[in-house]
């Protein structure tokens, strides 16, 4: 765990101390953001969405915890059931059908936790890429919406004109 934290801090340091000054950069490459997000959170740092990094890591750590916990309980009930079938006595107060139900329950929860971990990781990459696409998008204060009636001379037709000024 200490090695992971030191690699994470070193990566953040290298990202922040590169030759290019990210604060002066007006264009962010979506491809580069996606590639940096292979290491979770690096793409969000690149696109200056620092507040998303703790959310990503908390989701990954939480789902990782549930993967390990459900896997441990799944193996416990599976091995207990197999040991009972081989004649080894255990101290659990569950019947064989309850052990099978518990084994299946924790196996399903483990698989759901793996899906959530994978989804969080993929959304991390997609989010960094979309943020890079929208990095230079600005909303102007002078947005207007105007509806005017239009009368065409020489004909009986009338219509409505819709103008949107962005």
What does this structure look like?
The chain has 166 residues and is mainly alpha-helical. Helices cover 60% and strands 10% of the residues. Strands 1-2 form a two-stranded antiparallel ribbon. Strand 1 (144-151) and strand 2 (158-165) form a beta hairpin.
Order of helices and strands: HHHHHEE
| Average of pLDDT | 84
Q: Provide the gyration radius in Å.
A: 28 Å
Uncertain runs are none
Number of helices: 5
The fraction of residues in strands falls at 5-15%
How many distinct beta strands?
2
How many strands, what sense, and barrel or not for the largest sheet?
2 strands, antiparallel
Distance between the termini: 51 Å
Helix residue percentage:
55-70%
Shape: elongated
Strand order of the largest sheet: 1-2
- Summing up helix and strand content along with how strands pair, one would put the structural category as mainly alpha
In short:
By secondary structure, the protein is mainly alpha-helical.
SSE diagram, text form:
Elements: H1 2-16, H2 30-36, H3 42-46, H4 52-85, H5 96-133, E1 144-151, E2 158-165
Antiparallel strand pairs: 1-2
Describe this protein with a few key phrases.
single chain, 166 residues, mainly alpha, elongated
């Amino acid at each position: 765990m200490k090695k992971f934290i030191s690699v994470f801090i070193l990566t953040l340091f290298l990202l922040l101390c590169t030759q290019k000054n990210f604060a002066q950069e007006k264009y962010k490459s979506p491809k580069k953001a996606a590639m940096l997000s292979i290491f979770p959170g690096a793409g969000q740092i690149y696109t200056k969405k620092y507040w998303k990094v703790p959310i990503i890591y908390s989701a990954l750590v939480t789902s990782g915890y549930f993967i390990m916990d459900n896997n441990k309980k799944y193996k416990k009930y599976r091995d207990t059931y197999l040991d009972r079938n081989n004649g080894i006595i255990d101290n659990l107060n569950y019947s064989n059908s309850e052990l099978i139900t518990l084994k299946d329950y924790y196996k399903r929860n483990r698989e759901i936790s793996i899906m959530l971990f994978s989804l969080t990781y993929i959304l991390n990459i997609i989010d960094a890429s979309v943020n890079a696409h929208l990095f230079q998008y600005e909303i102007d204060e002078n947005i207007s919406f105007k509806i005017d009636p239009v009368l065409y001379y020489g004909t009986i037709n009338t219509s409505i004109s819709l103008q949107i000024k962005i």
